[in-house]
Predict the 3D structure of the following.
Amino acid sequence: MKTIKVLFAAILINLGSAQTLLANGGDGDAEPLGATEIVDKPWTLDFAYTQADSLKALEQIDQHFRNTKPNLLERAEALNNFYQKLMREERPVSILQIGDSHVAGREFPNAVKAVLQQRWDENDSNTANAQIHYDYLAKNGATMIKFLTPERLSAIAEKKPDLVIISFGTNECHGMGYDEATHYKQLEIAFDSLIAVCPDADFLFTGPQGAYLKYRPNPMTVRCASLLQKFAADRNAAFWNIYEIAGGQRALQNYMAQGLLRHDRVHFTPQGYQLQGELLGKAIVNAFPNI
């Protein structure tokens, strides 16, 4: 118990020192859509995710999105421990996705979960025998540095995740004042705090999907995605670049053409999040035989 108290005291000091780094890319830039914290309550309609949805999602991006890139994880070998645990089948593996409102809306993580359970759980996905336990913790308007409070770090530690999927970036870069050096320092502090409470986990960063900044696509998205890509490489974590996969500079046009972007042009429709979750789930599944 004394060790735990010392650990969280150190985390609190680290997060406190980070307050001077929060001037660029704050919580309030992208308008939140609902309650301040959501774990299992959707702010959109709850669409049941089926195999038909899965096939439709893949067909949609293959046939209707332009300038797409292969749906691959970068440095998938960073998830080797997670995949090895799946192969041993000694116990269920625990996956935790943390993030901002894109995760809080429920459809995105539920679609990832469905794909993984279709691959590894087959008919046991709703029983105590399920091999994949998938949870998520998210907050509307969050940045990673502000999200990882000592209280949430404690909640994350209790999950004992084998894989942590880190889905931030939209709020960090939602403004022309975005600064890569500041963001990198925030990531160092936040990620070190996360590693401290999840010493046995593998980590997968997902990049920002893209958003409009007033009347044009946010030009900071590509810079933020590149920064997250570099940070993940520096820290030997896997990375999934949904911005480039969905079309890069054409990504938002692709989403809009298919009716997958909401009217605020920051958040996506339930079908849009299902598509993104399907792609992430498929990327994780498809990397498995290659490890």
Q: What stands out?
A: The chain has one domain: 2-22+37-290. Strands lie at 93-99, 132-138, 163-167, 202-206, 212-213, 216-217, 238-240. Residues 2-22+37-290 form a domain with the Rossmann fold fold (CATH 3.40.50.1110).
